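Journal club prep — side note

Before the paper discussion, L.F. wants everyone to see what a predicted structure for a comparable chain looks like in token form. Sequence:
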Amino acid sequence: MTQQAPTQTQRDSRDHSGAGPSLQATQEQRSHIAKVESTDPGTITIENLEAYYGNFRAVAPVTFTIPGRKVTAVIGPSGCGKSTFIRCLNRMHETVRGASSRGHVLLDGEDINGPKVDPVLIRRKIGMVFQKPNPFPTMSIYDNVASGLKLNGIKSGRPMNEIVEQALRQAALWDEVKDKLKQAGTALSGGQQQRLCIARALAVEPEVLLMDEPCSALDPIATLAIEDLIRQLAPDVTIVIVTHNMQQASRVSDMTAFFMMNEQRSGELVEYATTETIFTNPADKRTEDYVTGRFG
């Protein structure tokens, strides 16, 4: 049976104990969270989101807005809850045994955690690309891209060949694979496999694309190809990317959220602002120390 998160009373008691952050610190932290007004499609509004593994709080309450049709980078040291946080944005977190979340995540004003909301539908609207390329090993390049539509029973009214070609073009892969669509997806290079996974996610026309360190297993040339692709996709899809690469975050993102582990070993949002502000004039000394390489 899935363990339940602590009650509000339990959380309040723990958060206001001597070991917890002071009210002054909490207010100061909130002052470092930029207020974003966005009405563009794919806007994600996060309100007091917490994530748990059993009774352990992996992510402390997070409140901020991810603007639609922009790229938001999530940075911070290893173990500070970045991947757990973004997995809460499309309800992947709840697929882990004993995991749960509290708070609200609104996609274009609708709570994705609502009691009548189908998580499968949410994951179609909010796609995900993982750290290591994971094309389906028994499928061809063509079938990998078409699989999302087939598995979800989506009928777009357009020919499948047209959908597959469009997704591969969006992923900047069409010219490289158009003459070998029947070959196994695993026969491609690592960078091509990652773009194939992006094409697979794009084929179902998501509003948001989550990327969890998508370039960590790639060489520099393949990494630059993914970064160029991210910027090309941004006008049409909201992108949230977790990265340990500060240069990558500064190159590809419009907004940046900096997380750290607090005294209770929970991930905490320290600062959120435009990427230019985070890297040139951060409000919090910890942010400056991290982006300049003094720790992390």
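L.F.'s comment for the group: The chain is about 35% helix and 20% strand. Keep this in mind when we get to the figures.
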